[in-house]
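User: quick one, fold this
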Amino acid sequence: MASNSQHHELPLPEFQAPVRLLIVVAPYYKAIADDLVAGARNIAERAGATVDLVEVPGALEIPSAIALATRGANYDGYVALGCVVRGETTHYDTVCNDSSRALTLLGLQGHAIGNGILTVENMPQAEVRANPDGQNKGGGAAAAALHLVALARKWRKSGIDSPAPRDHDVIRLAGEIEGQTRT
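Assistant:
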């Protein structure tokens, strides 16, 4: 059982240029999603960021929506919000693992993403974690995205920026190497 021990939170970064965040939320559990969004919006507002919000059917669609936005929209960072509650089948494990893995892969491609997809055993755990006056995991996800935006801008300004991705830098499907399929 997790305790409510104190932990250190970094102060919100300050920005000289405007920051645009996209919140992608799966409102499957509407009350939980609404609390997560409220927390994220509050933190974004405190940092002076503007926010757009889109809804998707479930947690598995959140990374896909973010990937689509990275191709055609002009956002500095992304906040992934949703809730997965353990049920009677292994579907919980699939949704938790695959959504987290996909968000991590997007982050490794250079996108500033805060992961606020709750993975809980029951609704009371979700309520405590989503509550903006409680653990405020939505706000924490927005803060994470903002910190990554600040870090990317700092490194870009100092010339420490990775080059544009080349074809061979793209994460490939299992078994595919340089356009050849393994047998």
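User: anything notable?
Assistant: The helical segments are 30-46, 61-72, 91-108, 123-130, 137-157.
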